[in-house]
Amino acid sequence: MPRYADIVLPLAQPAYTFSVPEGMALGAGEAVVVQFGVRKFYTGLVWRVHETPPSSGRVKPVQRKLYDRPLLTPQRMALWEWIASYYLCTLGEVMRVALPSLMKPSAATEEAFCEEEFRPRMECYVSLAPELCDEERLHEVCERLERRAPRQYEALLEVAAAGDERRISTGEVARRLLRADYGALQALCRKGYLRSAEHERTIERGGSHFLLPELTPPQQAALGALRAAYAAGKGTALLHGITGSGKTEIYIHLIAEALARGGGALLLVPEIALTAQLISRLERIFGSRVTAYHSKLTPRCRTETYLRLNRSEGGELVVGARSAIFLPIHNLQLIVVDEEHDASYKQTDPAPRYNARDCAVVMARLLGCRTLLGSATPSLETWLNAEGGKYGRAVLTERYGAARPPRIFVSDTLRAARRGERHAHFNKLLLDKMAETLDRGEQVMLFQNRRGFSPYVECTACGWTARCPHCNVTLTYHKAGGRLVCHYCGHTEPVPERCPHCRVTDVVPMGFGTEKIEEEVRAIFPRARVERLDRDSVTSERAFRQIVAAFEARETDILVGTQMITKGFDFAGVGLVGILNADNLLNNPDFRAAERAFQLMTQVAGRAGRRDAGGEVVIQTADPAHPVIRQVVEGDYEAMAREQLAERQAFFYPPYARLTALQLRHRDAELLRRAVLYLASALRARFGRRLLGPMTPPVDRIRGEYLVGLLLKIESGASSARARELLSAELKTFTENPEYRTVAVTVNVDPQ
Question: Is the separation of the CB atoms in 547 and 531 below 8 Å?
Answer without folding.
Answer: yes
